[in-house]
Amino acid sequence: MALLDFTYLARPARVVFGAGSLQHLEREVLALGTERALVLCTPGQRAAAEAIAARLGGRAAGIFDGAVMHVPLEVAREAQAMARALRADCAIAVGGGSTIGLGKAVALDSDMPIMAIPTTFAGSEMTPIYGLTEGGLKRTGIDPRVLPRTVIYDPALTLTLPVDVAVTSGINAIAHAAEGLYARDSNPVAGWMAEEAISALARGVTGIHANERDVEARGLALYGAWLAGTVLGTVGMALHHKLCHTLGGSFNLPHAPTHTVVLPHVLAYNAAAAPEAMRRIARALGTDDAALGAYMLAKENGAPVALRELGMAEKDLDRAADIASANPYWNPRSINRASIRSLLQDAFDGRAPGSSLG
Predict the structure, then answer these.
(1) Closest CA to 92 of 56, 44, 132
(2) CB 259 within 8 A of CB 244
(3) In 59, 74, 182, 301, which residue has its Cα 20 to 30 A from 37's Cα atom?
(4) Do 40 and 106 contact (CB within 8 A), yes or no?
(5) What is the SS3 assignment for 221?
(6) What is the pLDDT of residues 125-171, one digit of tens each?
(7) Residue 70 and residue 303: Cα distance in Å, rounded?
(8) Integer distance in angstroms from the first to the last C-alpha of the chain?
(9) C-alpha to C-alpha distance for 177 and 233, rounded to whole angstroms
């Protein structure tokens, strides 16, 4: 038996979980020691934000509905300015990763506490990781100030999330957990959470695809997203996240679908260098092969499997390989530009993972 030797950093957060848990909203705002909440959302989530503001009554300072993918710096500055103008003392991010990312940008600028009410399975609400895009490049960082203080997980709020979005959002969360299993600073606690997360998410998205009104399946997916997000917030990420940050920040590809397409190919790339992680990922997916299991999970549940389906231009693959190979994240297998280019070609074409990797 191998001797245990690891460091585990627990991130502080209050989690309120369960169908109907939104009823505790005002209690949770007051528990933060705050009284004027700026509600953040995307344009498409305006109705949900208005419902949140109505629940808060006079404790709602206003609504900012300009959240978009990858948190452009100019949008972050606009939200920060509104928070100051309305004298908000906290922000409530309602929605998915785009809105929660905007909340983090507001916190980074103001130190105000953030509450997250996720309506997708992105998991970013459990991390101190933020991202901002400026001039076509997405930069990320870690700062404890951006970690939401409270997260309300109410599966009923995800019922408006379309099936296709739910599936890619769930597989996006699986990617966080999968990389956590072969992270340089992985540990037994994060490893347990990662495997449990992958299993719950795979069952959840499959259930949602079969029945979009299945609240139990949506609860499973939210539970998995919570665990996967916790993994993302406690250990480092590797090649998969570097590629997705490149494709999203520099080529404006949609966040969750990009993670969905890329994940199987990165698992194939890293398979020989991280065999124990691949065994655990495969077990959690209920399959014999981690990479192929992730690919089939997407394909069988109607998710995209090719970057060309997401609007990526084949002529941009060389540039993407150059960006992803420059200043790479740590990865269990060394980063080889030619192999990354082959990986991207497979992902672009939608081939089975590992088709042309060297």
Answers:
(1) 56
(2) yes
(3) 74
(4) yes
(5) helix
(6) 998 889 898 887 888 888 999 999 999 999 999 999 999 999 999 99
(7) 21
(8) 33
(9) 10
3: its two tokens = 């001797």
| Distance from the Cα of residue 168 to its chain's centroid | 10
Q: How far apart are CA 304 and CA 334, in angstroms?
A: 28
Note whether 347 and 307 are within 8 A (CB): yes
Residue 49 and residue 42 in contact, taking contact as beta carbons nearer than 8 Å: no
Q: What DSSP state is assigned to residue 330?
A: P
pTM score, whole prediction: 0.89
Take residue 248 and report the two structure tokens written for it. Answer: 């999203």
Tokens of 204: 């959840």
178's tokens: 């999968």
In Å, what is the CA distance from 61 to each residue of 53, 54, 155? 8, 11, 26
Single-letter amino acid, residue 339: S
Cβ-contact 93, 100 below 8 angstroms: yes
Residue 60, beta-bridge partner list: 37
What is d(CA 124, CA 335) in angstroms, rounded to the nearest whole number? Answer: 26
**What tokens does 64 get?**
């900012």
